[in-house]
Specification:
Elements lengths: L2 H15 L24 E5 L3 H15 L2 H13 L21 E7 L4 E7 L5 H11 L4 E3 H10 L11 H13 L14 E6 L5 E7 L20 E4 L3 E7 L1 H5 L3 H10 L4 H15 L9 E7 L4 E5 L5 E6 L2 E6 L1 E2 L3
Parallel strand pairs: 3-4, 10-13
Antiparallel strand pairs: 1-5, 1-11, 2-3, 2-6, 5-6, 7-8, 8-9, 9-10, 11-12
Helix pairs in contact: 2-3, 3-4, 8-9
The structure holds N-hydroxy-L-asparagine.
The site of N-hydroxy-L-asparagine has 13 residues, from strand 8.
Length: 329
């Protein structure tokens, strides 16, 4: 079965499993997200794993009243999930067999922190927050980021691949074909953006990056403006998919700038996917990328290059998985 069809089938199967009770089927949902109501507070996050992450974020928001705490705690659920092959230390390794992680966090007032190419840290999102709050810098990389984690008292994890990651890596080694494209199945970064009842925004993004990437490769997720951008004056956006395509258009920043100029979150995501396709024409049939966005009024949207991208939307009416529309069908 071609990889995209397999992915779609898997997505549909897992959607069905994840859709009990209050979680609605995407087909029941309003198609035009630009008409989405501006309900606040609201938290949205990428892919199926966004459902569990949203649930945690929502309870943290209600406990602490902090949208920043909410987006940090929410994605920590995914980082700690041994079943995740695309986020955290149980994820797929790079081509040397080493798991390296990227993460970023941002507040609506412009404060932000990120880490990239970091090893052995179970919660890179928390490390990114520590960079934001306890250093004069925005971004720490590699061994420096790891040393900072140790200095902050964060535990170091053994560098043992999860058995499923190891199996996939050994299989990959047989061909060792390095193609810097997304194969649609192996990219499921979690990006989360949220707005509280007062219109304060925050966002987080964390990933083990592209499976079997070159050692040292850093994607969009830890780059402020590419994988994540938040501005209380306009809105917040985050990205998933092939980071190289997203970096080239400063994707999340551009989504937020378009919202500042008056576009709805849905319109802004669609316009940036259009720009991304323009700038990445070669091989676009094998490249997936998607954005989600929320504005300060609580309206939201999401859009992707190809079908198969979904995102979880949490507000007072429940936690819902929605299929994003896409440029190609
Ligand atoms: C990256 N954007 O490292 C990440 C990978 C990914 O959904 O999204 N996935 O390029």
């Amino acid at each position: 079965m071609p990889s995209r069809r397999k992915f779609l089938k898997q997505t549909l199967l897992s959607s069905a499993i994840l859709l009990p009770g209050s979680i609605k089927k995407s087909s029941e949902l309003m198609q035009d997200k630009s008409e989405s109501d501006g309900r606040k507070p609201r938290i949205i996050s990428t892919w199926n794993h966004g459902l569990d992450a949203n649930e945690k974020a929502w309870s943290v928001l209600h406990q602490t009243g902090s949208i920043l705490d909410a987006v940090e705690e929410g994605v920590r659920v995914t980082e700690a999930d041994p079943a995740s092959r695309t986020v955290g230390i149980y994820g797929f390794p790079d081509r040397e067999g080493i798991v390296t992680l990227d993460a970023s966090i941002m507040k609506g007032n412009g404060e932000c922190g990120s880490v990239c190419f970091v090893r052995q840290v179970k919660h890179p999102i928390t490390l990114a927050r520590k960079v934001m709050e306890h250093t004069p810098h925005v971004m720490l990389a590699g061994e420096g980021a790891r040393q900072f984690a140790i200095a902050q008292g964060m535990p170091m994890e053994d560098e043992v691949l999860h058995p499923e990651s190891e199996e996939a890596y050994l299989e990959w080694l047989e061909e060792q074909e390095y193609r810097p494209i997304i194969n649609i199945e192996n990219h499921d970064t979690i990006g989360m953006v949220g707005v509280d009842a007062d219109g304060n925004l925050a966002g987080s993004c964390t990933t083990s990056g592209l499976a079997f990437k070159m050692h040292g490769r850093v994607g969009d997720s830890p780059i402020i403006g590419a994988g994540l951008y938040v501005d209380n004056e306009a809105g917040a956006a985050t990205a998933t998919g092939l980071g190289e395509t997203i970096i080239k258009v400063c994707g999340s920043f551009l989504v937020v700038e378009l919202m500042r100029q008056g576009r709805s979150p849905q319109e802004a995501c669609e316009e940036v996917i259009g720009r991304l396709i323009e700038k990445n024409k070669d091989g676009i049939e094998d490249m997936q990328a998607g954005f989600i966005a929320v504005n300060k009024d609580g309206e939201y949207g999401g859009y992707a290059v190809h079908p198969g991208f979904n995102y979880a939307v949490q507000d007072e009416s429940g936690n819902t998985l929605e299929d994003a529309r896409s440029r190609f069908t």
